[in-house]
Amino acid sequence: MTSDGRPTARPGLPRPAGGGRPPSARRLPLLATAGTLIGLGLVVAWLGQRADAQSQARPQVTWTLSAASNTVTIRLTPGSGPSGRQLLARSHLVVTESGNSHLRRAGHGTVRVPVPPGAQTQLVVQVKGPQPVTRLLAVTVPPRLRVTTLRHTSNGLLIRASSPLRQQPLRPLCGTDKIGFPDPAEVTVAKSPYGCRARLRLTARDGERATVRVTVPTLPETPLYSFASPAGRAIYITVDDGWTPSAQVLAIMRRTHLPVTAFLIEQAAQRNLAYWRAFAAAGGTVEDHTVSHPNLTKLPLRQATYQWSQARLTLGRWLGKAPVMGRPPYGAFNRAVAAAAYRAGLKSLLGWSATASSTGIQTWDGKPLEPGEIVLLHWVPGLGQQLTKLLAAIHKQHLHPMPLTPASFAGVAPQWRSLAGD
Predict the structure, then answer these.
(1) What are the structural domain ranges in the chain?
(2) Can you give the three-state secondary structure of the chain, one letter per residue?
(3) What is the tens place of the pLDDT at every residue in 189-229?
(4) Could you tell me which CATH number the domain at 60-140 has?
(5) Can you say whether the dihedral through the CA atoms of 239, 245, 249, 254 is positive or negative?
């Protein structure tokens, strides 16, 4: 200690700084400053999070363009967070066209606005409510789809549009007509067995749509006859299919010069070509009974046409003369069958008014055979005996078997029904 009572400083130890205050007294201001800064940071972070949450909760504006209807649909969708739907419920849309005060539409959550095709429209979208927003939309609509050409051709209709089209499958307009897309902006509608007036709906690749009123042309048809000319008390003998050729029938034809018309299935004729050449040489006539004997009313027009045309060409190549008449298998007939026959080049279709079989002769009205009747038989075992009995009935009625040709139907009205059979 010194003489005045103060402690003597120890050699080698520094004196405390700051007038001798202890370290704990110096830390307090520093801690207070740090705390203040941390607090301010938390407040700033909280405010930022709150602002971010409010921004995310704000209703969102979405829009879509329908080129098909030239309409813009503008919707409000809820923002995120628990307050998103609350804000949406208190908000609504107001849409105006820039520079056009007359176009003003409002709605709670959805507004639809018509826009002209081939132009750009500026729309001002305002969200009214707790979180107001204003957006400017520039909507560009493709040009309107127009039909530039509509003309009839030999095959049907040809339609040209102002823009490339979506080549999507289109349902037939009249039930069986075919619609095609030969070029990007062209549509063809084939003639139909059932002509009609209809609306053809077209869609451009850019979404624009157009509806065209069309009259689909009716396909020409080959007429069907169940009776032929009665002149000279004529009667006509026809035999179907060809699976079982009859030597007895061939002998009767050669002996009596009996005219017989055979409606041959191509697949059946192929098995016995020698017989059918002898049949033709004996004065018989070979006509078309299709390739494979399907029910033509159940086939598409293209396939029905093939059944007629392929048999006609093949039988003509085999026997030297292409058929000009046909008989629908099973007697199944409608306008599509007649149209297919026309496309195949057939001049007449044949039904029948009487049948002859092992059970006897049946006419359409239950009465004896009369002039003009077309009698149906089949190439089956026992055909020779059936033909012999038929000839006896024919002679009893003083009728005369005559060759059957397209000329046999002069002055005869086409029929639409036959007796059931094949």
Answers:
(1) 60-140, 147-216, 224-409
(2) CCCCCCCCCCCCCCCCCHHHCCHHHHHHHHHHHHHHHHHHHHHHHHHHHHHHHHHHHCCEEEEEEECCCCEEEEEEECCCCCCHHHHHHCCEEEEEECCEEEEEEEECCEEEEECCCCCEEEEEEEEECCCCEEEEEEEECCCCCCEEEEEECCCEEEEEECCCECCCCCCCCCCCCCEECCCCCEEEEECECCCEEEEEEEEECCCCEEEEEEEECECCCCCEECECCCHHHEEEEEEEECCCCCHHHHHHHHHHCCCCEEEECHHHHHHHHHHHHHHHHCCCEEEECCCCCCCHHHCCHHHHHHHHHHHHHHHHHHHCCCCCEECCHHHCCCHHHHHHHHHHCCCEEECCCEEEECCEEEECCCCCCCCCEEEEEECCCCHHHHHHHHHHHHHHCCCEECCCCHHHHCCCCCCCCCCCCC
(3) 988 888 889 999 999 999 999 999 999 989 999 999 999 99
(4) 2.60.40.10
(5) positive
Between 322 and 133, name the one with better pLDDT. 322
Burial of 421 (0-12, 13-18, 19+ CB in 10 A): middle
State pLDDT tens for residues 117-174: 888 888 898 888 888 888 888 998 889 999 999 999 988 899 999 999 998 887 888 8
Fold for 224-409, please state it: TIM Barrel (3.20.20)
Rounded Cα gap, residues 143 and 89, in angstroms: 37
Contacts of 102 (CB under 8 A, 6+ apart): none
